[in-house]
């Protein structure tokens, strides 16, 4: 039987998803990539379902040796942070996966931008900085308005739009406070040797042809068929971002017209080829600007929430597709026509909120036509922090409908229930002097 090693971590798919799709054709070796060993009860429960390897203190060669004993023929991970480690293990085992150079480009936003620019795919101005001198140089090169991002990060955490030097200083300081990074000597900025930041040109806002309730960007899920060859198995529309550039959800299937969809898919394929992607499943975000589609970023794994969304639309299972792609099988999961429409709404806390005081009534949310599930991320009384991005979501609401009109109607009703029911405690407003310091 085929054996695949799953590198377990928080990501776009979890162990339960993998165990479900692996049943009957594939054995799993679960690799604990966390900072602590799993307890005896956890290991006992796991080993009744799969093999288990703890990788703490193991270098890639030692981990490859451990996995070789199980006859592993494929590797899969759903977390950006794991890409370099899994790539090194794949190279040691001679298994299909992103090579180390591609893994670095998929993980690091600065390397990715360089590769896209070198291939003529994207011309966005960008620069990295980690001290006052390089910050000054970055501002001179990129200008404003811009977007501040960690060079390595995910879930939109600490991604912030900045319009001038004062707002850039404030964004750096707030991110550093949350990440506990050392400040630069003689300054209050929240960055230092422990973290490098990227300043990017802010792309011009556009409009989605499907209507103002949809955001001006989409995401493309793809499986690589070899060098420069890809099958794009899903395009999802996105709900509008909330400040500061926080994701609020997605809709499937896309409402893009055929001509614009073709341009989006061509751009996604060109970006993947520029980064050297030859194996596995990827997630590409593309902004619909007045100048045409532009690449926001490419991730070397399945997009978050995509599995649940597609399952409600056409029954396709992208986790199964990713697992089979890990062993070089890209034939599974052929295109299925959608049977309806689905939406996932990610509820973000307001930027100045520090605690959830009251949550919207679950029964009232579930009573909205089309709502199939409501996941609670934060309980009343618990702290909230917009800086953590999607990981700090308050609720996740799943909807489905036979028509896009019905879906939109239910979505608006859900938003009303959430606006009336979620109550927050807010931090003390900053003074003008504090904002500028």
Please summarize the sheet with the most strands: 8 strands, antiparallel
Total beta strand runs: 18
Query: Could you say which structural class the secondary elements and strand pairing correspond to?
Result: alpha+beta
What is the topology, as strand order, of the major beta sheet?
A: 13-12-9-10-11-14-17-16
Helix content: 25-40%
Task: Describe, in plain words, how this protein is organized in 3D.
Helices cover 32% and strands 25% of the residues. A hairpin with a 2-residue loop joins strand 9 (217-226) and strand 10 (229-238). By secondary structure, the chain is α+β, with helices and mostly antiparallel strands. It has an eight-stranded antiparallel β-sheet, sandwiched between helices. Strands 3-2-1-4 form a four-stranded parallel β-sheet. Helix 3 crosses helix 4 (83-93), helix 4 (83-93) runs antiparallel to helix 5 and helix 5 crosses helix 6 (109-118). The protein has helices at residues 15-22, 40-47, 60-68, 83-93, 100-107, 109-118, 132-142, 165-179, 258-275, 306-313, 318-325, 362-366, 404-421, 432-436; strands at residues 2-8, 26-32, 51-54, 74-77, 126-129, 146-150, 160-162, 197-201, 217-226, 229-238, 249-252, 281-289, 292-299, 341-347, 353-358, 371-376, 395-401, 423-426. Mean pLDDT is 89; it is low at 181-194 and 430-437. It folds into three domains: 2-97, Rossmann fold (3-Layer(aba) Sandwich), CATH 3.40.50; 125-201, ATP-grasp fold, A domain (Dna Ligase, domain 1, 2-Layer Sandwich), CATH 3.30.1490.20; 217-425, ATP-grasp fold, B domain (D-amino Acid Aminotransferase, Chain A, domain 1), CATH 3.30.470. The protein starts with a strand and ends with a helix.
């Amino acid at each position: 039987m085929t054996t695949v090693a799953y590198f377990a971590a928080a990501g776009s798919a979890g162990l339960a998803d993998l165990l479900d799709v692996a049943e009957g054709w594939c054995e799993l070796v679960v690799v604990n990539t966390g900072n602590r060993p799993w307890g005896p009860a956890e290991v006992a429960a796991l080993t009744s379902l799969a093999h288990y390897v703890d990788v703490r203190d193991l270098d890639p060669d030692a981990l490859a040796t451990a996995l070789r004993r199980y006859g592993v023929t494929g590797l899969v991970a759903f977390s950006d942070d794991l890409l370099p480690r899994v790539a090194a293990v794949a190279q040691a085992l001679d298994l299909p996966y992103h090579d180390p150079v591609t893994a670095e480009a998929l993980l690091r936003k600065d390397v990715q931008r360089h590769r896209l620019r070198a291939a003529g795919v994207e011309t966005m101005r960008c620069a990295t900085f980690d001290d006052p001198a390089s910050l000054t140089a970055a501002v001179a090169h990129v200008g404003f308005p811009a977007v501040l991002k960690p060079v390595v990060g995910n879930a939109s955490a600490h991604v912030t739009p900045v319009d001038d030097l004062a707002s850039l200083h404030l964004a750096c300081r707030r991110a550093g406070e949350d990440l506990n990074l050392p400040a630069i000597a003689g300054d209050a900025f929240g960055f230092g040797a422990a973290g490098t930041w990227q300043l990017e040109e802010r792309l011009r806002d556009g409009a989605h042809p499907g209507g103002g309730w949809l955001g001006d960007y989409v995401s493309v899920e793809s499986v690589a068929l070899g060098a420069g060859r890809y099958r794009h198995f899903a395009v999802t529309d996105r709900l509008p971002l909330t400040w500061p550039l926080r994701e609020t959800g997605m809709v499937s299937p896309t409402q893009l017209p055929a001509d614009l969809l073709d341009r989006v898919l061509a751009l996604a394929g060109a970006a993947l080829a520029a980064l050297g992607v030859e194996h596995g499943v990827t997630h590409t975000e593309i902004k619909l600007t007045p100048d045409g589609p532009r690449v926001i970023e490419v991730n070397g794994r399945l997009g978050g929430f995509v599995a649940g969304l597609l399952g409600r639309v056409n029954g396709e299972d992208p986790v199964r597709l990713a697992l089979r792609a890990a062993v070089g099988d890209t034939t599974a999961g052929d295109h299925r026509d959608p049977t309806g429409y689905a939406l996932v709404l990610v509820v973000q806390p307001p930027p100045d909120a520090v605690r959830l005081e009251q949550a919207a009534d679950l029964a009232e949310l579930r009573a909205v036509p089309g709502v199939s599930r409501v996941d609670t991320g934060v309980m009343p009384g618990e702290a909230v922090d917009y800086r953590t991005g999607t990981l700090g979501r308050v609720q996740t609401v799943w909807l489905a409908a036979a028509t896009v009109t019905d879906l939109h109607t239910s979505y608006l009703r859900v938003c009303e229930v959430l606006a009336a029911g979620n109550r927050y405690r807010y931090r003390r407003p900053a003074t003008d002097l504090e904002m500028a310091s």
